[in-house]
């Protein structure tokens, strides 16, 4: 009887701690940085916006996307910690689909469109699909660019 109660308590632990099972092998707090770290293997920590500087000299940086890259959003007044998302697929020169956590609070989303709206086509400004309006959002978000975890692993850097 005591074992049964312990098992039930353990089963409820994720919900009690505010954790969510999110599919794709990820089972943790629904935040963008831990999610991106879990699916890419990047060895970075802290606020998402800090990943760009932290990864300098450790992982390759790029201004054009590849599948598996991490798009790093700058900190803004709306997003003081920044944001990171993982490129699932490159659709075209100015459109990617990403997987990300907590863009919509408490959710992991897959295949979310992100559009480059930068003047130089260098992915330094993007607009992101917003589910509640079923379309691309109107806000423009500044980004640093892409961290390339795959290239770093192939080069033996991570």
Automatic annotation (TrEMBL):
This is CHAP domain-containing protein. Residues 7-127 form the Peptidase C51 domain. Residues 1-20 form the signal peptide. Pfam families: CHAP. InterPro entries: CHAP_dom, Papain-like_cys_pep_sf. It comes from Ameyamaea chiangmaiensis. Keywords: Signal.
């Amino acid at each position: 009887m005591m074992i049964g109660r312990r098992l039930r308590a353990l089963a409820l632990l994720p919900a009690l701690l505010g954790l969510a099972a999110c599919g794709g092998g990820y089972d943790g707090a629904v935040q963008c940085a831990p999610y991106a770290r879990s699916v890419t293997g990047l060895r970075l920590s802290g606020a998402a916006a800090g990943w760009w500087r932290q990864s300098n000299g450790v992982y390759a940086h790029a201004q054009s996307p590849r599948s598996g890259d991490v798009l790093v959003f700058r900190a803004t007044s709306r997003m003081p910690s920044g944001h990171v998302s993982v490129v699932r697929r490159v659709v075209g020169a100015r459109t990617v689909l990403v997987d990300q956590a907590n863009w919509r609070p408490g959710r992991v989303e897959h295949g979310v469109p992100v559009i480059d709206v930068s003047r130089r086509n260098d992915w330094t400004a993007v607009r992101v699909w917003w589910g509640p309006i079923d379309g691309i959002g109107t806000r423009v978000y500044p980004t640093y660019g892409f961290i390339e975890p795959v290239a770093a692993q192939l080069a033996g850097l991570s």
